[in-house]
Structures are given as C-alpha cells and as structure tokens.
Amino acid sequence: xxxxxxxxxxxxxxxxxSRLAAVLRDLYPNERLLVNIALEVYECGIADRLRSMTxxxxxxxxxxxxxxxxxxxxxxxxxxxGLEMWADAYGVSIKKELITATPIDITNVxxxxxxxxISNDPFAHTGIVEGNPLEYEVKEVGPNQxxxxxxxxxxxxxxxxxxxxxxxxxxxxxxxxxxxKIETIIISDGIECIRQEAFRDCKNLKNIKMNxxxxxxxxxxxxxxxxxxxxxxxxxxxxxxxxxxxxKYGKKLTAYFYLGTKAIGDAREHNFPIENAEDWPxxx
Length: 284
Hints:
Blueprint: H1 3-9, H2 17-27, H3 32-43, H4 46-51, E1 55-56, H5 58-72, H6 76-90, E2 93-94, H7 111-115, E3 130-131, E4 136-142, E5 145-151, E6 158-161, E7 164-165, E8 168-173, E9 184-187, E10 193-194, E11 207-209, E12 216-217, E13 229-231, E14 238-239, E15 254-257, H8 264-269, E16 274-276
Parallel strand pairs: 1-2, 3-7, 5-8, 6-9, 8-10, 9-11, 10-12, 12-14, 13-15, 15-16
Antiparallel strand pairs: 4-5, 7-8
C-alpha cells in the first residue's frame, strides 16, 4: 500500500481521520489490514510527527513502536510496517536496529489455553478468547453476534480462533482458506458453525480441535488439508454433503461421534467414515 499517493493527491484528508479512512478504503479495498494499521499510526499522532522529520533514529523508532504496542496492541513488526508506510510517504528514513524480530503476541490466549493444542482431550475448553479487530473482517449476524468473514492477520503454526471480537460474540467462522502455515486449529467455546470452505487449501493443517457447542459444518470446510480425523461434540446437528471431503479424489476424513449425536445421520447419508468417540486416538 502506497501512502505517498494519498499524501500527494489527497492532502485534504490528512487533517480528518474519517476522510482519510474513506480515501484509503476506496483506494485499497482489498488491503483492510494495512489500512487499519495506517489509521492507527495516524490516530496516535505519529504520522503527523513523521511529516516534520527528515530521519528517525533507532531509539525514536523503538519508542514509536512501543507506543503503538501499548496503546493499540499492535505487534512490534506490524507497528514498524505502519511506520515505514508513513515514512515512505513523507520521504523520511527510519533506522530500526533496535527493533526486536519477535512480534508481540496479541491473541490474548493464556498459557493454559495454548496447552490444549497438544492435549489429547477431544475438545477445547478455552473460555473467552479475544480477537484483535485488525486481524478479522466480521459481519453482524444477530444481536451482539458476529461471523468471521475473513482472516486478515499473520498466520501462526498453532491458532486459536477467537470467540469474541470488539466486544461481540463470534458464532460462526469462515475465511481462513489458503492459510498455508497453519498446522493446528482450536475452535473456541461458543462458536457454532464452520462455514463453506472455511479452511480450504490450508495445505499443512493437520489437527482441528472442536469446542463442545459446535452445531454445523458445511461443504468443503476442510478441503485440501491434511486432517485425517475429527472428534465432533454431541451438540453437532448438521454435516453437509462434501463437508468432510479432503481432496479432489473424494477422500473423506474420519468422524468420531458419541452415541446420540444428531449429525451421525448426515454422516451415514454421505458415507463418511464413522468411529466411536470413546475410542478417540488423540491428535497427530
């Protein structure tokens, strides 16, 4: 994203955040994460300070990144990216020798929650997991309820899908397709639906741990992944046709159910391999 275009062609918007946001979103409709980062740097006053500078010493760069991390929970490397966008726009050079290469963890997932990634307990018990609004595009689906429409953040090997974003409860999820770095997904408490193609083409995804409130999974949710088996909670009601198909040859992952789970009927109708959840062998 080139902010120099904004500075040179739309200088009037630099004094008003709403105008700036409108211009950026019009120019870069598919760069929502970068737009939000640029707006955070603007909002805290750093962009305006950069305009009057010719170069930024390493200690000042570090201070700017710390301010963005403290006030807006931006990871250090993301904050630096925002600084560099504005610095390039104003022709300012930035020294960054003191910036650590390790980004700040902004997922707000506790050590106990992360431990469930390797636990062989069939289900996740996460409690509240707050998601950073900059990392997710959401849509309202009900009173105080949202759906994750698209993941905009930086992929991690192990990811916990949040159940609360910007104060609203996440009830269904999608938009994680082609996240090739992810190997393990944990579905947080309260999420009820995994939408069509939610994790399609996550080519290295091997494990997905469900919560105990999931109700439905839709077509090609896990297509072109390495998932071999999933343990479904008793709350599962619907598995659509092709929902558990994992490749173009029709390979299907194995579904583990507890007796009495309503979705067993769908699994049988669609000829999905079925096993008893009491015999769950654990995660890979």
